[in-house]
Amino acid sequence: EDKVVQSPLSLVVHEGDTVTLNCSYEVTNFRSLLWYKQEKKAPTFLFMLTSSGIEKKSGRLSSILDKKELFSILNITATQTGDSAVYLCAVEVGGGSQGNLIFGKGTKLSVKP
Amino acid sequence: NAGVTQTPKFQVLKTGQSMTLQCAQDMNHEYMSWYRQDPGMGLRLIHYSVGAGITDQGEVPNGYNVSRSTTEDFPLRLLSAAPSQTSVYFCASKRRRNTGELFFGEGSRLTVL
Nearest by CB to A41, which of B42, B96, B107? Predict the structure, then answer.
């Protein structure tokens, strides 16, 4: 059974801290890994990763994929209260379920002032 | 830009009632899907469609029906609502099945009494 596991499930930090969120996966046909940020409503897209070792960066957020060890990390530097959200990791699979995304349970990040 | 539009945003049903959650996208996306999100469970795929006239089951399809008569619309029908279907429902679409990034609607919160 395909699965995506995120850790930790929740995290409380103070403004200015750096955080690392983890995502590991076991899927039969890997196509890509995606990170989303979810505040009150719909998840919003952050990154899509398909190749190992190539860092994707957007401002204070960055992410990297390791296809040999089957995991990805999302780093947030100099955290701000606006970073408080649930961060979702998803894997797009191929094969019979081609194109479907399997989501982890998310990491709830709380940034205290 | 409307993107993915879901209606209604909130709905309360009694056990045994039926209803339809509407989803429309104006991006000419081939792939559309429905997820439910429950506390501690992450996003789970209910049904998906890779084009007009084509639908398939996801991880948790029981109690739900879908149809895709046009590219734009992908309604989700609850045939006989049960309290276990109390959840937040998200419709999501992407350009083609293999293009990774999903675009989400704002969600529909359903309560079944």
Answer: B107
What is the spatial distance between Cα A79 and Cα A7, in angstroms, rounded to a whole number?
18
- B45/A105 CB distance under 8 A: no
DSSP lists the bridge partners of residue A11 as: A109
Per-residue pLDDT of chain A (113 residues; tens, 9 = 90+): 889 999 999 999 999 999 999 999 999 889 999 999 999 889 999 999 998 888 999 999 999 999 899 999 999 999 999 999 999 999 998 766 678 999 999 999 999 99
Residue numbers in B near A58 (CB within 8 A): none
Surface-to-core class of residue B93, CB atoms within 10 Å of its CB (0-12 exposed, 13-18 middle, 19+ buried): buried
